[in-house]
Write a structure and sequence with these properties.
Elements: H1 7-17, H2 34-46, H3 53-66, E1 70-74, H4 77-88, E2 94-98, H5 104-111, E3 115-119, H6 130-135, E4 141-144, H7 156-166, E5 169-173, E6 181-182, E7 185-186, E8 193-197, E9 210-214, H8 217-227, H9 248-279, E10 285-287, E11 294-295, E12 301-305, H10 307-310, H11 314-323, H12 340-346, H13 352-360, E13 361-364, H14 372-388
Helix pairs in contact: 1-11, 2-9, 3-9, 4-5, 4-8, 9-14
Bound molecules: pyridoxal-5'-phosphate.
Length: 393
């Protein structure tokens, strides 16, 4: 869990998780397999720790597995977004971003001297709402950065139609969507730029790490150069660049993990299906609506909690689950437009759907190391919370 959980709730959850009456169910699992540990150890023994052959192989095999034409590995999903924005945008350009997302979708636009414009999200899919986005178009709007939130992918055709109509570039934030597909098309193969994160809790993890995919060879070359200080093949510094390289040690972990990616994805899918079936009909619990045509990646399984119908609010349900050793987390408690940095910079905006979801959302565990019995325990505790009205004040 990162800072998305409010401080007091986080403490309460951690205190309650110390209670060991029942096995703990965590929100994510990032335990490397024995094969992954051996692969990492082999690179450590080789002494080749910097960006090298393992990074090149990870890029090739990522393309082969996820259908991308070019893949450029980098230090994080945040670095991936910065590189992507920097390759398309000029100072003062505006980028439409959904309000309900991780901060980097917006903050990296600022890092590229552009201006993120927060848009509201759809009340059901929780993805960028194009009707709201349309109202925020100005003569300076140059791009849109849709986020495949929690692994639920956007309707590609609708976004591309919108982008064409308004002359915008698209930067897809797929940090949470490894392996997600829409109408059979893997999100890594979309164009022109798709950004992934390999952060420790992600569906494919290297601890820290990221990848930018593109179908454009010239863009791929520019991204490679900027990932390493903007240097060209002759060793000259041609552009503003950074040290956003990935090392061979995390790359070896990612490579080894690719071979169990399908098994992990299937387990997430099975867990999500079971959660959806089991939670259906519990008053006050609403699941994310999956985009028509999408095969989601189930990075997170989030619900919204209606206090009047469940008898307890989001924090009350989280505390009830924590007392039974079931961890939860809040992604995201506020829209980015409500974060102090954005309020100070861009002033106050009202995005009611994002704000309503942020106040009610809770992520339940869905990860690849959970079995049917864990999922059944989560479902029965949510149901019990309703029946006992555990938090009724
Ligand atoms: C939607 C989204 N975008 C971008 C990022 C940034 O990725 P990283 O943490 O690897 O920098 C994340 C990571 O949490 C994310 O969830």
């Amino acid at each position: 869990m990162r800072q998305q959980v409010s401080g007091s709730l986080m403490h309460k959850v951690e205190r309650m998780m110390d209670d060991d009456r029942t096995p703990a169910i965590a929100t994510s699992s990032c335990v490397p397999s024995a094969a992954e540990i051996s692969a990492v150890a082999a690179v450590l023994r080789s002494g080749l720790l910097r960006q090298g052959p393992s990074v090149e192989r990870l890029e090739r095999e990522f393309c082969a597995r996820f259908g991308a034409r070019h893949a450029v590995a980098c230090a994080s999903g945040t670095a991936a977004l910065h590189l992507a924005y920097q390759s398309l945008l000029c100072a003062g350009d505006e980028v439409l971003v959904p309000a309900l997302t991780f901060v980097a979708t917006a903050s990296m636009a600022i890092a590229a001297q552009a201006v993120p414009v927060a848009c509201d999200v759809d009340a059901d899919t929780w993805l960028i709402d194009l009707r709201d986005a349309e109202r925020r178009i100005t003569p300076r709007t140059r791009a849109i950065a849709p986020v495949h939130l929690f692994g639920n992918c956007c309707d590609r055709a609708a976004i591309e139609r919108f982008a064409r109509r308004h002359g915008l570039a698209v930067v897809w934030d797929a940090a949470q969507a490894h392996g997600a597909r829409w109408r059979g098309q893997d999100v890594a193969a979309w164009s022109p730029l798709v950004c992934f994160s390999f952060y420790a809790t992600k569906n494919l993890f290297t601890g820290e790490g990221g990848m930018v995919c593109t179908d454009d060879a010239a863009l791929a070359a520019a991204l490679r150069s900027r990932r390493s200080h903007g240097q060209d093949a002759d060793g000259r510094w041609q552009e503003l660049g950074f040290n956003y390289r990935l090392g061979d040690v995390p790359a070896a972990l990612g490579l080894a993990q690719l071979s169990r990616f399908d098994a992990m994805a299937e387990r997430r899918q099975r867990n999500a299906d079971r959660l959806r079936r089991g939670l259906a009909g519990i008053p006050g619990i609403r699941c994310q609506t999956i985009t028509i045509g999408c095969e989601p990646a189930w990075h997170r399984f989030c619900v919204t909690v209606d206090e009047d119908a469940l008898g307890v609010d989001r924090d009350g349900l989280a505390a009830h689950l924590a007392a039974r050793n079931i961890a939860t987390s809040v992604h995201y408690p506020r829209g980015i437009h409500q974060e102090p940095f954005f309020v100070r910079r861009f002033g106050c905006t009202s995005l009611p759907v994002s704000e309503r979801i942020g106040a009610r959302i809770l992520a339940l565990p869905v990860h690849h190391d959970l079995g049917d019995e864990d999922i059944d325990r989560i479902i029965s505790e949510v149901r019990r919370c309703h029946r006992s009205e555990c938090g009724r004040r």
